[in-house]
Amino acid sequence: MRAMLLVNPKATTTNARRRDVLIRALGATVELTVEQTRYRGHAATLAGTARAKGYDVVAVLGGDGTINEAVNGLLNAVNGDDPAHLDDPSAGRPALLVIPGGSANVFARALGLPNDPVEATGAVLEALRDGRRRTVGLGQALWDDESRYFTFCSGMGYDAEVVRAVEGLRGSGRKATPTRYVNTALRHYLATDKHHPAMTLTGPGIPTARGVYMAIISNTSPWTYIGTRPVSPTPWAGFETGLDLLGLQRMSLISMLPIIRQILTERDTLPSGRHLVQLHDESEFTLTADRPVAFQLDGDYLGERESVTFRSIPNALQVLV
Do 93 and 51 contact (CB within 8 A), yes or no? Predict the structure, then answer.
């Protein structure tokens, strides 16, 4: 079995010694090629190369951003085929193997992998030996003439503003720890516009919802983690269903506190509140805004947008897990 391992040398929870141990362990099981990512978008290029050269597996040692890039490299259209219009989008593409190396590692943990990279390596080595594969669905976001896939979440509005702020802190050399995300979210809440909602939700068979301040789009649950605590605004979301959404039509503190309390509690029921917009297992919907709003995919800030369409892509990717 031929595998290409993509290593993000700047991943939050790895170091050179640990990477060497993981590389040796994988190299003893498969015919391994190791590539280090050097710039933003490089993982997508490398994964596309692995697909074109007929590799069986693309392994990623890194955080959710590196995994997202690799997934997009694997799924970008081949010979004009759009995965959204294929019966089996995963056919003919390498399987994905993930080893968590970031701060949150939401996708890896949603697959049931340990958050520790050494323990996760042991789990994926067992999957390799036993040939254990799982086919998962993905989300796809489309705007202007661009599109991008996401593994676990997207967002428009306040949550994307927080991602943008944390990326700015990381650019100054600070680590993206759970505490930093929480503190940044609290500080940013005081500055965000809580009086002029910008977004409207539309879609086939979906009642139009106006006055949306913030929208979380989920491909699985949980949405993220604060340390070991899962945060689940869309607890019914899963890799085998369509997309879920939670939208907020109020941002006052008295409205936000009950929602925060609910999504931090492990539960099987949806959050409740009259100011909420919720969707479950939808194949397509669109968020439009009367002014540019912040937009993120899998925790990666992608600028401000005025219209984004979200689609569910079933059976898009094979994962060794």
Answer: yes
Q: How far apart are CA 119 and CA 121, in angstroms?
A: 5
**What is the pTM (predicted TM-score) of this model?**
0.93
DSSP bridge partners of 61: 7, 99
- Phi and psi, residue 5, nearest 5°: -100, 120
- pLDDT tens for each residue of 68-82: 999 999 998 544 456
Of the pLDDT bands very low, low, confident and very high (cuts 50, 70, 90), residue 83 is low
**Which residues on neighbouring strands pair with residue 246, listed in sequence order?**
216, 278
Q: Whole-angstrom Cα distance, residue 112 to residue 298? A: 17
Residue 269 φ then ψ, to 5°: -100, 155
CA-based torsion, 139, 68, 76, 289: positive or negative: positive
Decide: 96 and 72 in contact? Cβ < 8 Å.
Answer: no
Look at 96 and 8; give whichever has higher pLDDT: 96
